[in-house]
Amino acid sequence: MKPPIDQHAGYTIVEIMIAIAILAILTALAMPSLQQFMARNELVGTSNALITGINLARTEAVTRSTAVAICPSTDGATCSGGDWESGFLVFVDDNNNSSFNGGEELIRAESGYTNPAITIDGTGGLNNGFTFSADGIRSAVVGAGTIDLNHNVATNGIQIIVNNTGQISRIEI
């Protein structure tokens, strides 16, 4: 005996449309969270690159027993005050002026961050660059300085704090 043939196998157009509508609603609800997640990851990556550069400057100052500076740079060859978004230079600062001059040894040139949604601003002596002395202490400074990173999509930014002893910390702002 043969089993009866099912005339109603598969999905109706109404069932498919309902499934698509539910999927569209769930996607619309998840999209802002995904944008926040991606913006936060971009901020963390950028702050990690800056912290790596700052740590490199401090480590090289102690290792070489001489002043080493880090400064923002738009062209990878000179210091440019306050434009951390364009990149930075780490160099031996022979004259202790936090500015890359002819004859000073360039340790690292970091290219800029191409995401226009991220802004990076320094305060407390960190806007134009700064120097670490041979013992790893930030030179000619009183108190902590900060570098603030913000993203036009993320609700919270990141703040990098470099205190007067040269220690670096990162907090969410």
Number of domains: 1
Kindly report the CATH topology: minor pseudopilin epsh fold
CATH superfamily: minor pseudopilin epsh domain
- By DSSP (H or I, 4+ residues per run), the number of helices equals 1
Q: What's the level 1 CATH class?
A: Alpha Beta
CATH architecture: 3-Layer(bab) Sandwich
Could you tell me how far the N terminus lies from the C terminus, measured between alpha carbons in angstroms?
74 Å
Mean of residue pLDDT values: 88
Give the structural class: alpha+beta
Radius of gyration: 26 Å
Strand content: 15-25%
Q: What is the 3D shape?
A: elongated
Brief digest:
With 173 residues, the chain is of the alpha+beta class. It has one helix at 13-64, and strands at residues 68-72, 87-92, 106-111, 118-123, 130-132, 145-151, 158-162, 168-172.
Structural overview:
The structure is a single chain. The protein has 173 residues and is of the alpha+beta class. The chain has one domain (13-172): minor pseudopilin epsh fold (3-Layer(bab) Sandwich), CATH 3.55.40. The chain has one helix at residues 13-64, and strands spanning 68-72, 87-92, 106-111, 118-123, 130-132, 145-151, 158-162, 168-172. The longest helix is centred in the first third of the chain and has 52 residues, at 13-64. 27% of the residues are buried.
